[in-house]
Write a structure and sequence with these properties.
2 copies of one chain form a homodimer. Chain A is of the alpha+beta class. Helix content of chain A is 24%, strand content 33%. In chain A, helix 1 packs across helix 3 and helix 2 packs across helix 3. The two termini of chain A are 39 Å apart. Chains A and B meet through strand 7, strand 8 and strand 10 of A and strand 7, strand 8 and strand 10 of B. Strand 10 of chain A pairs antiparallel with strand 7 of chain B, so a sheet runs across the interface. The structure holds a DNA duplex. Chains A, B: This is GntR family transcriptional regulator. Chains A, B: InterPro entries: Bact_HTH_transcr_reg, Chorismate_lyase_/UTRA_dom_sf, Tscrpt_reg_HTH_GntR, UTRA, WH-like_DNA-bd_sf, WH_DNA-bd_sf. Chains A, B: It comes from Pseudahrensia aquimaris.
Chain lengths: 249, 249
DNA sequence: CAGTGGTCTAGACCACACA
DNA sequence: GTGTGGTCTAGACCACTGG
């Protein structure tokens, strides 16, 4: 890749470090730099793009703050793998009531109830911006801590974005890492919508609670680096033994 | 204030910009720089502390990212007032269902039900780390959008931290700004714990719902810059017309 | 040891606000 | 114009990693 092009007029240009960052994010989106890969050194990137090392550093620092990169002194800069405990729990906010205070230390395992392709309904088409008669995967599962069921959820994925998924592939614990590794979709952020709802009759047996019990409904959309919604998930969470924790800064 | 002291050994020292930041945060905590005040210029701070302007900039950038400061090109650097819409909504996560997508544009008004001093119970003493027989303020109120009640909440404040509050002072819409301006407590972050619960009988009339209806319970602790918990708030939120939104990055 | 990221400095120039 | 923050560069030195 050659040096960055100069913008026509200085006035309407983004700062140089922002354009450098854009060029680097492009390489993540395109898959040129895959999760876990080591980036060239700051000086190498600077020389390649024709800017100073300090400018490259500012771009890398921002990307690190966003969680796209991991920097290790003395070793290098790497594409984030979403592998560390911290990143694993980045999107997992439920905590057992008795674990209050510390970060969740247990990660529940999954039990699969159903996994099949369907024609997308209107809501799914709207969420994923799909044409008529497009197909989606629907995956129903429960999550447990030991013998206790903590939540039921349905994960919806557009088939076009997940070619090669089959009815027997089990999602691993860290699904977002799985999406990145196998399908090249890097999640940049997720939007969640929380409500308290009365437990539906068809879900009640799965959670071992009476129909009508208040449960926490979490409606989540995962957004990829390119802005596309790649996953829709609705979770119904027992609220008597766990809570959703959040820190606002 | 004189130049920063050199640490005994370089090895165990924090980076210079971190110590600069610490020194500046001290001035916020001590009230030397009050909300809304303009800070000296980068060069002035640098000269005073005996470091370079770039080092001061790095400290100021971090504090800006934390929301402690607001920087305006051409004007100066100011202590954040929690006055802008964005900051006003930083801690307000409830959105009317029909407003989905955009940031909340309406901020509900309040109706006060009760406001009185009490001896702290065991839970309150634990939360605020108070001695026996310490006193707390308890403020009960509802919040509305037009004729519709959206939530009931109880705010608990330790009397020692809020000297001068009376039974007739109404909290303004932006309470955290009020705390900063009148009592010098700058909120650095809040911890929230969410659950779905069945509506209690004594609260039901306030929300205009049946006893037992699922409502969203938000348990919030506000933490000041010095690490002290300064406010405990439990909100019971109608979940049929609004939701709690969250973005995880 | 060489190579990496982390910190710090000094100085230049630009864009914006306001008198 | 002057003073502010915003960007960019060049170069120095430190701390960490691994051969």
């Amino acid at each position: 890749m050659a040096a960055l092009e100069k913008p026509a007029r200085k006035l309407e240009a983004q700062p140089l470090y922002a354009r450098v960052k854009g060029a680097l994010v492009e390489r993540l989106i395109s898959g040129q730099w895959k999760p876990g890969a080591m980036l060239p050194s700051e000086f190498a990137i600077a020389a390649e793009l024709g800017v100073s090392q300090g400018t490259v550093r500012k771009s890398l620092d921002e990307m690190t703050a966003q969680g796209l990169l991991v920097r290790r002194q003395g070793k290098g800069t790497f594409v984030a793998e979403a592998a560390d405990t911290e990143i694993l729990f980045r999107f997992y906010r439920l905590t057992r009531d008795e674990d209050e205070g510390r970060t969740a230390t247990r990660f529940p395992d999954s039990r699969y109830l159903a996994q099949f392709q369907n024609t997308a309904n209107e809501e799914e088409r709207r969420i994923f911006n799909l044409p008529h008669s497009a197909k989606v995967w629907r995956i129903d599962r429960t999550r447990h801590d030991g013998a206790q069921t903590l939540l039921w959820e349905r994960i919806t994925l557009p088939c076009t974005l997940f070619e090669g998924l089959s009815e027997t592939t089990e999602l691993p614990n860290n699904v977002y890492r799985f999406y990145a590794k196998n399908f090249g979709h890097i999640v940049s952020h997720v939007n969640e919508k929380l409500k308290a709802v009365a437990l539906r009759e068809d879900i009640a047996p799965h959670l071992g609670l009476e129909k009508g019990t208040p449960v926490l409904e979490v409606d989540r959309r995962a957004i990829a680096l390119d802005g596309q919604t790649i996953e829709w998930r609705v979770s119904l969470c027992r609220s008597d033994v766990q809570h959703y924790r959040n820190v606002l800064r």
